[in-house]
UniProtKB/TrEMBL annotation:
The lineage of its organism: Eukaryota, Metazoa, Ecdysozoa, Arthropoda, Hexapoda. Pfam families: Astacin (PF01400). The keyword Metal-binding applies. Binds 1 zinc ion per subunit. Signal peptide: none annotated. Its EC number is 3.4.24.-. This is Metalloendopeptidase.
Amino acid sequence: LEQRSCLRFRRRQPDDGESYVRVIGNEDSGCWSWVGYMNNEFQELHLNPSAPESGCFRLATIMHEFLHALGFYHQQSASDRDEFVDILFENVQEGTQNNFYIYTADVVTDFGVRYDYGSVMHYGPYSFSKNGLPTIVPKDPKAVIGQRVALSEKDFSKLNHMYGCLKKG
C-alpha cells in the first residue's frame, strides 16, 4: 500500500494522540474489520491466528481487511452492481445476506472508477453459499471474481482518490 499510495503505516507509540488501527489476533474472531473509522480512538481489525486455512494471513486478505478499515465496502455492494453481477439470494446462507446488500452511491462512492471484477474487495462466485451453487454470477462471462492475490489497479485508484494521493496513483 505504501509503495502505491501516500498512506504510511508505523507502529503506534504509547504517547500518540492519533487514531489508529488495532490489529487483534483473537481465535474466536475470524478475519474482519468494520468499514471506516468507527470511534475516536482506534479501529479494530481482526485476524484469527489459529485458522491459517481460513486465509486470514494471506497478504491480499490482510490488505482486504485493511481496506475495510480505511473505508472500503465490498465491490458487490456498489450501487451499480446490478449492471455487472447477479446476486442469487436463494443460494446464500441464512444470516449472511448482509454481505450482499447494495448501497447507494452516497454511501459507497466509486470515485469515478468503474465496477471492478478484479478488486480484492470482490467476493468470489461461491461466497457464503448454502448449497455449493453460485451466489454471485458476473454478467461478463469472462470475468473472474474473488481474487485474493493483490490489490487491482482500480483498487489503488480508488484508494488514492479517497485519500488525496493522486500524485502517486
